[in-house]
């Protein structure tokens, strides 16, 4: 049995909107200052495709990709070699003191709690002058999230929480954390991405690849199908059935350089 069969994450579903998901990645990468051949860690590397792209664009000496999803790591293995390696792990506990020049985390930190603690671990993993670059979604107030919570509360006695709502901080809080960590330079910004989807129904397919994954295991296959069907009806009633549909998506991008 493949990892994808037992894992809530499905690389193919996630990459259904690859172009839209990639833009914040490249905007985050653009914040990095190029210097030499860095040792790089990509925390929450997903299927490894963009990890390999970042390795090449930075001219990295070596790159480590880490992800908790067996399905994603299984897919990422196809990009191993030439200085790139992948391992399964909990990015919230990741700490390798003084091992890296760049720590990069695109759309992954939101899945773990206590960002002050986690960013402290990551900062300690950097060498002097090292760079920390992180992007997290900040759209927990969008109907796509709110309706999911409503439907899950009706179908589950103890629904899992929305990681974005529970864990993601305000932009100014991240600026304060970077300052407390001693970053000599930093950038923190809230950016709204405009995604033009074919229809409102495509929003369902979008979140099936991310925030809805937390419901798959506790519901089982049959329950998952009932949940998605109920969610689709409720969300389309809320947003209206439109074609095309413009999906406004808020994200926080932050970068800091250590002394």
Task: Supply database-style keywords.
about 260 residues, alpha/beta, 11 helices, about 25% strand
How would you portray this structure in words?
The protein is α/β, with parallel strands linked by helices and 259 residues long. The protein has a domain at 3-140 and 163-196 and 249-257: Vaccinia Virus protein VP39 (Rossmann fold, 3-Layer(aba) Sandwich). 41% of the residues lie in helices and 24% in strands. It has 11 helices and 7 strands. The protein has helices at 3-6, 11-14, 18-29, 49-58, 70-76, 115-124, 143-155, 163-167, 171-180, 201-208, 216-239; strands spanning 39-43, 62-67, 84-88, 100-106, 126-137, 185-197, 245-257. A 7-stranded mixed beta sheet has the order 3-2-1-4-5-7-6. β2, α5 and β3 (84-88) form a beta-alpha-beta unit. The chain is globular. The termini are far apart.
The CATH class label of the domain at 3-140 and 163-196 and 249-257 is Alpha Beta
Kindly report the average pLDDT value: 92
Amino- and carboxy-terminal Cα gap: 47 Å
| Count of individual helical segments | 11
Into which percentage range does the β-strand content fall?
15-25%
Using DSSP, what is the number of strands? 7
**Which blocks of ≥5 consecutive residues have pLDDT under 50?**
1-6
Under the CATH scheme, the architecture of the domain at 3-140 and 163-196 and 249-257 is 3-Layer(aba) Sandwich
Largest sheet, order of strands side by side? 3-2-1-4-5-7-6
Q: In which range does the helix fraction lie?
A: 40-55%
Fourth-tier CATH superfamily name of the domain at 3-140 and 163-196 and 249-257? Vaccinia Virus protein VP39
CATH topology of the domain at 3-140 and 163-196 and 249-257: Rossmann fold
Q: Could you say which overall geometry the principal axes of the C-alpha atoms support?
A: globular
Coarse structural class: alpha/beta
Main β-sheet, in a few words? 7 strands, mixed
Strand/helix succession = HHHEHEHEEHEHHHEHHE
C-alpha Rg (nearest Å): 18 Å
């Amino acid at each position: 049995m493949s990892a994808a069969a037992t894992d809530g994450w499905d690389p193919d579903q996630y990459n259904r909107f690859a172009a839209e998901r990639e833009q914040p990645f490249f905007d985050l990468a653009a914040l990095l200052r190029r210097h030499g051949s860095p040792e790089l860690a990509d925390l929450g590397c997903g299927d490894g495709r963009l990890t390999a792209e970042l390795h090449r664009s930075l001219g990295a000496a070596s790159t480590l990709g880490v992800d908790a999803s067996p399905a994603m790591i299984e897919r990422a293995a196809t990009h191993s070699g030439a200085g790139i390696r992948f391992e399964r792990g909990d990015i919230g506990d990741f700490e390798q003191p003084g091992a890296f020049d760049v720590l990069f985390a695109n759309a992954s930190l939101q899945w773990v709690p206590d960002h002050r603690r986690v960013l402290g671990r990551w900062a300690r993993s950097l060498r002097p002058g090292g760079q920390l670059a992180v992007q997290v979604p900040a759209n927990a107030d969008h109907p796509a999230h709110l309706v999911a919570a409503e439907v899950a509360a009706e179908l589950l006695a103890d629904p899992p929480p929305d990681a974005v709502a529970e864990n993601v901080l305000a932009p100014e809080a991240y600026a304060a954390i970077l300052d407390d960590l001693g970053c000599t330079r930093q950038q923190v910004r809230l950016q709204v991405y405009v995604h033009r989807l074919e229809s409102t129904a495509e929003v369902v397919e979008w979140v099936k690849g991310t925030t809805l994954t937390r419901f798959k295991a506790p519901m089982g296959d049959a329950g998952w199908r009932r949940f998605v069907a109920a969610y689709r009806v409720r969300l389309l009633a809320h947003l209206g059935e439109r074609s095309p549909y413009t999906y406004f998506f808020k994200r926080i991008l932050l970068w800091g350089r250590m002394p």
